[in-house]
Amino acid sequence: MILFHAAEDAERRPNPKQAPGEISTMPQMHLPFFPDGVEHITAELAFEKKDGQVTYFNGHMPVFIHAEGDIPTFRMITAQFCLNGNAKQADISRAFGVTLISVKRAVKLYREKGVSGFYEEPKRRGPAVLTAEVLKQAQERFDEGLETSEVAEQLAVKRDTLAKAIGAGRLHKPTKKKTSTHR
């Protein structure tokens, strides 16, 4: 609720308890009026989905619009509402049916990188370590009877990388024959 004082009204209606010449003010309530069909986020903030667009309102005034499927912009504006104090993270979670942790992550991203953080290309993994040539060389060494750690050292790859390739069936490590000592 926003309060303001109507000084003009106070001059017209004298208060018997006030000193002569003193202007009394009476608090007046300014109600937020929203368009029909909006869903409230807070008492002052609402949104409407219409014709593939999401429009956010502060009272009757639209403050932001984005396409309904534009997730990065949705995350950016809702994080901005939280950081500016227009809404709490729980309000956003409740109003849009998203998880609280996703709102927290968006707020963290906004704090760390600003608006541009929502539109960066996702980080991709580097090039594959086990190229066709490296796989061929590794298989040759395994066929020679070398251990995983020896092959990893010779090819400058991690032992776990080779172990995963063996587990996935991309490399085959010959099983050692058990030598029995019969007497």
Provide the succession of SSEs: EHEEEEEHHHHHH
The count of strands amounts to: 6
- Give the rounded overall mean pLDDT: 84
Number of helical segments with 4 or more residues:
7
Adjacency order of strands in the biggest sheet: 3-4-5-6
The biggest beta sheet reads: 4 strands, antiparallel
The share of residues in extended strands comes to 15-25%
Short recap of the structure:
The protein has about 180 residues and is of the alpha+beta class.
Summarize the SSE layout with pairings:
Elements lengths: L1 E4 L1 H6 L14 E4 L8 E2 L4 E6 L2 E6 L2 E7 L3 H14 L4 H8 L3 H14 L18 H12 L4 H8 L3 H10 L15
Antiparallel strand pairs: 1-2, 3-4, 4-5, 5-6
Helix pairs in contact: 2-4, 3-4, 5-6, 6-7
Features:
disordered N terminus, rod-shaped, 16% strand, 183 residues, alpha+beta, 7 helices, 3 domains, two-stranded antiparallel ribbon, 4-stranded antiparallel beta sheet
3D structure, described in words:
With 183 residues, the protein is α+β, with helices and mostly antiparallel strands. The protein has three domains: 1-31, no CATH class; 33-118, no CATH class; 132-168. The chain is 39% helix and 16% strand. The chain has seven helices and six strands. It has helices spanning 7-12, 71-84, 89-96, 100-113, 132-143, 148-155, 159-168, and strands at residues 2-5, 27-30, 39-40, 45-50, 53-58, 61-67. The protein has a four-stranded antiparallel β-sheet, with helices on one face. Strands 1-2 form a two-stranded antiparallel sheet. Strand 5 (53-58) and strand 6 form a beta hairpin. Helix 2 (71-84) crosses helix 4 (100-113), helix 3 crosses helix 4 and helix 6 (148-155) packs across helix 7 (159-168). The model is unreliable at 1-10 (pLDDT under 50).
